[in-house]
Amino acid sequence: MPDFAKMRDNIRFSVTGEGLRIDLLETEQGMFFIAGSPNPTGIGERLLEVLGAELAKMPNTIVIEGHTDARPFRKSDPMSGYSNWELSADRANAARRLLHSYGVRPSQVVEVRGFADQRLLNAADPNDARNRRVSVVVMFLITDGQPQ
Fold first, then answer.
1. How many CB atoms lie within 10 A of CB 95?
2. Are 97 and 89 spatial neighbours (Cβ–Cβ below 8 Å)?
3. pLDDT averaged over consecutive 10-residue blocks of the chain (148 residues)?
4. Closest CA to 12 of 139, 141, 140, 137
5. What is the DSSP letter of 47?
6. Which alpha helices (DSSP H) does 16-142 contain, by range?
């Protein structure tokens, strides 16, 4: 993927108790999603295309999460209108739709989560752009009661 050099600092892989977590960390300008929008950028769509093709080859189930920073969404009141809760869930669902269009089976995605600013990557700076992210969790396979 020729554009990977531009984005490699914004993709983080980690192994958690659930499985392999792939975090797509945003920049201030919006690398993977248009700033303030659930619509992916061209780079974001291309990355999800490559990721979807690879995930489709696997038997693992997938969880997709959306996260935001702590900045209020366009001065929205959390009691009404569009807020970080909707944005985080909408981005996770946009990623899900793209992954499906690039080969991920509907049965592979077992959960879509929107966390708004409740699980900050950088709690020391709640407004850090890296807190805005979509995470794809490739769940461990459980064989004989053991994660694989």
1. 29
2. no
3. 66 93 88 90 91 94 96 71 91 97 96 96 93 95 66
4. 137
5. H
6. 42-55, 84-101
How far is the C-alpha of 18 from the C-alpha of 142, rounded, in Å?
A: 11
For residue 44, the cross-strand partners are none
- The conformation of residue 107, written as its DSSP 8-state character, comes to G
What pLDDT, on the 0 to 100 scale, is given for residue 122?
93
3-class DSSP state of 26: coil
CB atoms within 10 A of CB 99: 23
Classified as helix, coil or strand, 23 is strand
CA 43 – CA 18 distance, rounded (Å): 27
Count Cβ atoms below 10 Å from residue 33 Cβ, excluding itself: 25
Distances 78 to 72, 84, 87 between C-alpha atoms, Å: 8, 8, 12
CA separation for the pair 41, 39 (Å, rounded): 7
- The model carries a pTM of 0.88
| Angle CA 69–136–14, to nearest 5 | 85
> CB of 48 within 8 A of CB of 136?
no
Secondary structure percentages of the chain, helix, strand, coil, to 5: 30, 25, 45
